[in-house]
Amino acid sequence: MPAFLEVILIGFAILALLGVIFEEVIHINKAKTTLFFGSISWLLMFMFAGSPEQQDVMLGKLDHNLLEIATLWLFLMATMTFVAYLNAKGLIQTLVQRVCPQQMSKRSLMVMVAVFAMILSMICDNVTATLVTLGLVHAFNLDNRTRIKLAVLVVFAVNSGGVALITGDVTTLMIFLAGHVTMLQLFVLVMPAIIGVLALSLMLFPGVTGTVSTDKIQRHFKAMDIAIMVIFFTTIFCTMLFNFFFQIPPVLTFLTGLSVMFLFGHWLRTDKEETRILEYIRQVEYETLLFFLGILLLVGMLKEIGVLDLLTSAYAQFSPTVANYSAGIFSALIDNVPLTAALLKASPTLATSEWLGLTYAVGVGGSLLAIGSAAGIIAMSKVKGLTFGTHIRYFPFLFIAYTLGYWVTITLAKMMF
To answer: Which of 352, 391, 384, 363 is nearest to 125 (CA)?
Structure first.
């Protein structure tokens, strides 16, 4: 491959990364920039491949990259369709409101909301978990300072909960699909997540006093709504069970669950109001999926031209514990999806405990800054008064909670594996 082409391709990757970082400034969705530069990079690689034999080699490399992307895409599409239905019906919010006391202290509310956000983010994508939890927060009559603290706590809790299950965080799913951790091993991250979230809650308590009340939401659900919720949680359980005992890929189990959901939508529809359950696929956030597609095409290109070998060399200069911890902090500035994809393509040699440390770090580290995760960006758009500047005031508390959670992760993982 000509040297000038490698320079151009690296330039495309840098431009795409800048497009992600400055999305709010240039007002171009990051999915559009990454998909454009990712696609055109592979086009140029084929054009300058040379002989037909080299083009065949390039085709094999593209097929390999597309297979990885398709597996991730199909899994996310299945989970996001389930969540789109449950969210549209208000099932999750209503269940929480029914178990929530009508009156409680604001500090109790902070802990309850944090735990809810963490649990919800294990089974939903971070975007949905953040939107649903912030919707719950807005149901309470709170002063603006407490609401901002709750928003900061929600962002950290959502990112913390997502690392423990492959249904919760894309970076966790990517590391799992690469074969570096198992579902059983990922459960080790539940304890660090809980400790980090509770520690942050305690640090945010000062200045939060008084009680708060809410009115119960009265909603009635159809048999189909309950059935689909049961199918969703059964699918999650079967995904873990089948993978553990039969090594069945999670995407296959989730697609099976999705097909059962569609069949129930057909059988349980009413004549008065027919629910077209298949149409909930349209509510899936395809911009998110296109972003992942563009990023993985770019990272695959960087792998093929040898750039990621430099990342492996740089990674090897430090102990894995320090390198992973630093990668988590770095993910507060750079989107954790391309960062994780690059690390996986670079294939550093790590022990199981170190892979778990990396999983926690890249999943939670983005919470340190408001721009470091999708949850933080959503919170800034939904909570009045929460800006990059107000969020950074809580950086010391977030840094302590992140460091504590990472230390617990490494300690537990080394003891168990």
So the answer is: 363
